[in-house]
């Protein structure tokens, strides 16, 4: 016969396993099933020769061969973003002390802009088994946990990208170190003591404490839960240069085609002054066909110019003069599916003059 205490322990374990957000934490696909990674490309409202809802998006994960137009809209709790972040919201609702999370955005929801933080946006959610790191380009997103999933009214006009990768818990120590360089503006955070001191660097970030003195930049390999390698380039505000031309292209030893949100008064031109060159993308073409100009695309990504290199990077920073003074980063991979999908999306880019 089981004692009353034994039954209580068993009931607690069952509750943990079957309460959403308190079991295995991972990136989730369009059906809500665990995936190692996914990429979302939210379409701009203004496309060439047409105007859309500004809420449609393309979806990519290891199980598909090319961009797929989602049957969901990005402002609903269905679909990959809603399913993934829903785990964080459920953990907050149940006041879980076995999971940690962190939400950051230089332009957070319902708060005023502050100077001094990195130009970076994302969310972490993890337990002592595994979790996800969602890196994205969307201002005022995601909402505070008590409000549940939603999409900002300002998020319709421009294109946006988001990359989610599932990592085992051991990788979050490295991720925490990388985020010190980013110096993100955290607007909501939960870090129970069970995660200390393993990810103690997150406590600095959560409390908005003064960041310890760091080198100007750091690159580290991260390995996904299913063994896929990613390179994370993290730059602090003390590394005052264009992350794409001065650093990433030279480390990857590859000419890069870069798609970032640029405005004419601050735009950096294509750069051929270093051994590896960087060229600005001006027009994007996705399946459908969906055609739009870079001017209406707030996403930040780049790919190798040559197909043999197969590098793809998704991240935070734009190619413009002011962002040389900002912290932030890029997550790069040689996954052939991601490379092929982004490389085919480039309709027109500008060489050096």
TrEMBL record:
Which EC class is the enzyme in? hydrolase
Q: Where is the signal peptide?
A: 1-23
Q: Which domain of life is it from?
A: Eukaryota
Q: What is its EC number?
A: 3.1.22.1
Write the record's keywords in alphabetical order, separated by commas: Hydrolase, Signal
Task: Write out the catalysed reaction.
Answer: Endonucleolytic cleavage to nucleoside 3'-phosphates and 3'-phosphooligonucleotide end-products
Q: Which GO terms describe its biological process?
A: apoptotic DNA fragmentation
Per the record, the coiled-coil ranges are none
The record's section on InterPro entries has: DNase_II (IPR004947)
GO MF terms here are: deoxyribonuclease II activity
In which family does this protein belong, per the annotation? Belongs to the DNase II family.
Protein name per Swiss-Prot or TrEMBL:
deoxyribonuclease II
Write the lineage as a comma-separated list: Eukaryota, Metazoa, Chordata, Craniata, Vertebrata
